[in-house]
Amino acid sequence: MQPPPRKVKVTQELKNIQVEQMTKLQAKHQAECELLEDIRAFSQKRAAIEREYAQTLWRFPLPHVSPSKCFEGMLATGKSGSSSSSSSGEENSRVIDKVAYDVFWH
């Protein structure tokens, strides 16, 4: 004959369940934090590689393409802007050259 099962206090049983759940929650939180850190490190490395690649590409001599022609579409106002001698065309060209410089060298 077996002894009768021990009666555990309900509060003690609930406390044990809560401790177990907290342990699992902390482990899940730690795993998610590590995943986010890995993603951040990957993104930083990828950005550095892409920046280096863009700078390398920018160094290639392309006599037929200037920075203002590459980024002309970014500030399209309905006019060409690159061949115009008006002040707005010159201003657009200066802004486009600045954007090109900032994108590839910073």
TrEMBL record:
SUPFAM superfamilies: BAR/IMD domain-like (SSF103657). It comes from the Eukaryota. One of its GO terms (biological process) is regulation of actin filament polymerization. GO terms for molecular function: lipid binding. GO terms for cellular component: neuromuscular junction; recycling endosome. The keyword Nucleotide-binding does not apply. Residues 21-57 form the FCH domain. Keywords: Lipid-binding. This is FCH domain-containing protein.
